[in-house]
Structures are given as C-alpha cells and as structure tokens.
Amino acid sequence: MLFQPITKENAAIVRKYYESCSYRLCEYSTGVKLMWHGYLNGCFTEAAGCLIVRSCTGERVQFDYPVPGPEGDVEAALRLIEKWCTDHGHRLVFSPVPEDKARELMQRYPYMAVRNERAWKDYLYRAEDLANFAGRRYSGQRNHINKFRKNYPQARFVELTAADDGLIERFWQDYEQEFRKVDNESARKELSYAKEVFRLLDRGWFVAGGLVVDDRLVALSLGEKCGDTLQVHIEKALYSHAGAYPTMVQTFAQRFGDDVTWIDRQDDAHDKGLRTSKLQYLPAALAGKVRVAVGCELDILKEIPTLQTERLTLDALRDEDKAAYNALCMDDERNRWWGYDYRQDLQGQLTEDYFLDVARRDFERRWAVNFAIRLDGKLIGEAVLYNVDWRGGIELGCRIAPEYAGHGYGTEAFAAAAEWGLYGLLMERVVAKCYKENAASYRMLSSCMRKTGEDDTFFYFEKLV
User: Fold this and answer.
1) For 65, which DSSP code?
2) Which of 246, 283, 334, 337 has the highest count of CB atoms within 10 angstroms of its CB?
3) Rounded to whole angstroms, how far apart are CA atoms 159 and 222?
4) Could you give the C-alpha distances from 2 to 16, 46, 63, 465, in angstroms and in order?
5) Which stretches of the chain score pLDDT less than 50?
6) What is the CATH number of domain 122-266?
C-alpha cells in the first residue's frame, strides 16, 4: 500500500468516505484530520474499496478502523493493514476505534491490549435536544440564552461562507483580546488550527455560522456532516458577551442539525473546564474511542526452547556459532532460495556480529524465533518462525549449509519447528512457501505440509492444528 499525507489539496478524496461514515467519532472526519495533521501526521490510501488512514505520533504508528465506500471490503482492508505492519516491522495498533468495531477486533485477534480512556470519549447529543433545549433539565441553558437575547436584541444568526473572511478575521482579533489561555501552548495551537480550517469554507466540506451583534461576530461555529452525525469542530464565543455560547450551540443545531440524529461536540482532552461545560449540555451518550494494540503468541515466550529430533537439536544461537552462522547468512546461492538478500537492510559496515545481533534483536522484539539446527552440537543450518499474521498464523523458513544438504536434515528440522509452532507456541497455523524452481524445497514442504495454492513465483503450504 502506498500512503500519501492528508492535505487540503487531496482532502476531497478523504471527505467522500467521511460524508457517509457512521462511526460517530470526531477522528473520522476531514476537519480533525486537517486540524491536527501536524500532530497526527495522518496519511491515507484507498484499498479494497475502503479508506485506510495511518497516523504517526513520534515512534508510534497506528491505524484508524477502515472506512468502507459503497463497495468496500473491510475484511480485505484489515488484512492489508496486517500485512503492511508485518512487512514493515511495526506492531499492529488500531486507534481510535469505535466501541462496536473494537468488539469485532477482540473476536478477530487472539492476543491484544485494550485502552478506553474516559478523557477521550466524545460527547454525543441528540440534535433535537440542542436545537430545542426543552424541559426542566435545560432550564439553565434557556436562562443564559434569554439573558443574551435581552442584552443583545439585535443579535442574529448568519451562515458563514468564504465570502465572510473579513468578518471572521475581525472575530479572531476580538477573540484573542479576551483569550484566557494565552499561556497554554496546546490551546494556542488549537486556535491556530481553527483559523486554518475556517479558510477552507470554499471547499464545501464544512458548514459554519455565527452570531452577529452590531455587524461584528460575537460567536462562531464550524461543523462537518458525517453520516447521521454533525461533527462540531470549532465553537468560539467572546467571553464579554454572556450567554453567547449556549445561544450559538442552539442556533447552530437549529440551522444545521435538522437532517442528522446526533451532534458530536468532541472530547474534553483532560480539560476540567471543557468537561464541565460539555456535561452541562447533558450528552445522550459518551462515544468511546478504543485503542487496540494487537499482540501475538511470541509475546508470551520467555526464551527460545530446545527441541530434540532423532538426529538433530534445535535451540538458540550462541556466540560460538558466529563463524558458521555468518557463512550460512552470506551464502548467496542459499539466499537466492531463501528469498532474502541481507544487503537490502544492511546499514553501515558488515561486522562479524551483525547476523547474530539481528537474530537476537528480532527475538527481543518478538518478531521472530531463530532456531540453530545442530548435528552433534555443530550448527548446520537454521529454522526461523517469523511473519506473524496477528490472527494465529506464522511463517516458517529453513535453510541448511550446502555441505549438509541431501541427508534429510532440513525436512527433519522443519517438521520439528512446525510441530512446536502449533503445539508449543500454540499457533493456529504454520505457513511456508518455496520458489517454483526449487524442487528440493517443494519435496520437503510437501512431505510435512498441505499445499494451499500457487502464483507466478511461489508454491504455498500450510499446516494446521
């Protein structure tokens, strides 16, 4: 999959998925992707009829849950994400995930860790509640609105478009004069991002409106319709105009909420004032945002075990294996059938410790288990379990030094490693492949696994519990 950064130049592609998205979380919207691009570093691709979004915050890589188009195949999109993580050496993490989709992921993956923090839950309101503020429970909001209307009887709601740039810019100047969080860096950034999004009103992705008093805006709001939910990305009002906030909330809902069921005023991000304010409007639900970090069977493995066959021992690589292991790893003829050239990943100079260090580091990260294959204590090859598919599957490869080929050692070691993978590591399946020209590997795999298919390059095999 080829990803490209989400920018205002290509956001129309993203928007076509979000405009019918039913996930009801603010992150599944064009506005949030653009406003917080500098933090999320969001990238996207279209695959399997779905929008696939990847975010990178520092060293952490995570994926949104796929958003399907009209013919989208979410199952296929999830498999592509899984393969990308395996191929690129990243842990599989989905965040944020709607709670109902998190349940599906919990059934999909055998090992996973889940976080569902209170501070990141979105505040969902019924559109009719915010538009009407009916009943005793909303008497406080009505009182504030009545006070605003009494003090500013000339106030009127206007729909804002790109033609109102001057009016909007003057509001920002007035707002910054009253801004109470001038020393809060996060708040300053959020304000800067809000200004940038308001400059995109000509794109047709957003709806916006404001309250005008004496030809000046005293409050404004911007939202985006995503499925049955109006995502409110920006709400600002002048503190000097008491009651402007609830008046803005109500009039915005009246103007733009008639064809949606929900209004999402987004999370509070641990801010006490925001939480108090959002709760005062009596949300109908708190929409959870779940972080799903997918693990694998290798994560519970404390050390590489010792396996014994009739003639061979399989165990961890040792320092004294260095010379023999280097020779095996640098055998270009063997590596041709192994399907890997170490030069592709080599950074800096090749040292005598390089290959042992790579194998050990892969195990420390629980990406692979490299078994040394020993005959009478001497290393004659290796069997490697690697490429977890996150759903109980793992790939197995085996190579034998040329001077020991032709004696069935590879078949014996391969069968032992596959058996341990299924019944020791408790994988659901072990898979393998070989080049079509590699007759020896084909015979070996056929002797202990079931052939499952082929393409122009490989034959594929599988062994199940």
Assistant:
1) P
2) 246
3) 10
4) 19, 9, 14, 35
5) none
6) 3.40.630.30
